[in-house]
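Propose amino acids for all 424 sites.
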């Protein structure tokens, strides 16, 4: 039996089948070994896993590096999930919400006075710095039938350039041509529905040129409106413009104001009324218009010019008015209310000689409120009682008092005679 301490080499012929014969246990032998002894922990885990195999769970960092997307149908947004099929969270949305609520509560605690003011403003329109702010009233639609009563009373208020309709029911009326609502056209006499519709459009255009053009209202010649009239009617209108009288004033055809007496506080004109049509009894068409125009004006350089019998006040005060084109010009404002009822006739061209495309005036009735009664210069002259030392315009002796906003009244004659206004 060989021993480790035996220093002598055995003869080669003694053990011919010895596998370790010639083996040298040096460093090259160790590095070239292919089988290594497992560690004690490896042997222990190997024995354990033979009885209870482990679950195949990847490392967490591997799951985060390899995200997956679970697709949905019908175009909905895909949900991001991890390798185990669980929905991934993209962030904690609750924390920012709690922070925002905390900041809001802190600011509210520091501004309780502002919160109280905001609450009261929402309840009654008032603010901490002043009285309640008036809520704009809704605009009324154009009339479709004759009203049965006058407009209700409005809280009295002084009109200004900033609010020229304060204290007036016209504040709810349509502005300008928006009040000229056309009735549904239909065939009448010799005219088909389309032709009647064209005639109604002609009348609306004429009213726009004659009563709403700011230049005409400020005293300019109404050339566009004159061009729409028949030759005979145009000749009569031009005669009244050239030689106005108290009985034949062109102001009833073309509401105008002398810029020396009054200038527009706003180019906005409030209008209410209606337009209708019917047959004229001779196979033609009659178009009836009945509109009330309300103009807001401020004093011109000479506000007493043209004011006569209803001028009131024996001691008018002097007034230095700003030019009409001065931006933001302020001062007292007065309103003049003109009600105009006109009839336009479209004769049957097979029975009468007519000018194609021209308007034929068939009648007129008019009534004015808050204007001098004896004007003979072809202009309306609004009165500004606030500029008078006696603080008011005296009524015309013997003249009736009417509500110029009351459109339920029938115009009695409409000769432009003087009337006192119960309100303006």
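Proposal:
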């Amino acid at each position: 039996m060989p021993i480790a301490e035996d220093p002598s080499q055995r003869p080669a012929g003694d053990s011919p089948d010895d596998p370790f014969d010639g083996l040298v246990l040096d460093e090259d032998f160790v590095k070239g070994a292919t089988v290594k002894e497992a560690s004690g922990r490896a042997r222990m885990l190997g024995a354990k896993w033979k009885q209870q195999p482990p679950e195949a769970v990847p490392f967490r960092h591997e799951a985060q590096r390899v995200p997956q997307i679970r697709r949905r149908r019908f175009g909905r947004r895909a949900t991001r999930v991890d390798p185990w099929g669980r929905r991934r969270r993209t962030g904690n949305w609750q924390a920012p919400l709690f922070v925002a609520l905390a900041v809001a509560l802190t600011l509210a605690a520091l501004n309780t006075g502002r919160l109280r003011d905001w609450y009261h403003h929402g309840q009654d329109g008032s603010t901490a710095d002043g009285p309640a702010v008036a809520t704009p009233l809704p605009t009324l639609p154009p009339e479709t039938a004759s009203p049965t009563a006058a407009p209700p009373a409005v809280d009295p208020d002084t009109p200004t350039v900033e609010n020229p309709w304060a204290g007036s029911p016209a504040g709810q009326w349509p502005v300008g041509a928006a009040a000229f609502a056309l009735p549904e056209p239909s065939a009448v006499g010799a005219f088909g529905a389309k032709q009647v519709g064209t005639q109604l459009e002609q009348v609306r255009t004429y009213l726009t040129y004659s009563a709403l053009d700011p230049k005409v209202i400020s005293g300019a010649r109404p050339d566009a409106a004159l061009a729409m009239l028949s030759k005979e009617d145009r000749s009569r209108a031009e005669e009244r413009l050239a030689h106005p009288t108290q009985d034949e004033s062109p102001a009833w055809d073309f509401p105008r104001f002398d810029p020396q007496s009054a200038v527009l506080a706003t180019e906005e004109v409030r209008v209410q009324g209606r337009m209708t049509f019917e047959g004229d009894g001779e196979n033609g068409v009659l178009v009836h218009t009945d509109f009330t125009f309300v103009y807001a004006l401020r004093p011109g350089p000479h506000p007493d010019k043209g004011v006569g019998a209803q001028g009131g006040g024996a001691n008018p005060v002097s007034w230095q008015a700003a030019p009409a084109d001065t931006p933001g010009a302020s001062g007292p404002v007065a309103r003049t209310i003109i009600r105009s009822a006109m009839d336009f006739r479209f004769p049957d061209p097979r029975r009468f000689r007519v000018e194609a495309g021209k308007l034929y005036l068939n009648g007129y009735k008019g009534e004015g409120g808050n204007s001098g009664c004896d004007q003979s210069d072809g202009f309306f002259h609004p009165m500004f009682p606030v500029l008078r030392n006696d603080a008011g315009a005296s009524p015309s002796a013997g003249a009736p008092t009417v509500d110029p906003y009351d459109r339920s009244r029938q115009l009695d004659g409409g000769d432009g005679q003087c009337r006192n206004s119960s309100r303006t």
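The CA atoms of residues 9 and 22 lie 11 Å apart. The first helix runs from residue 27 to 31.
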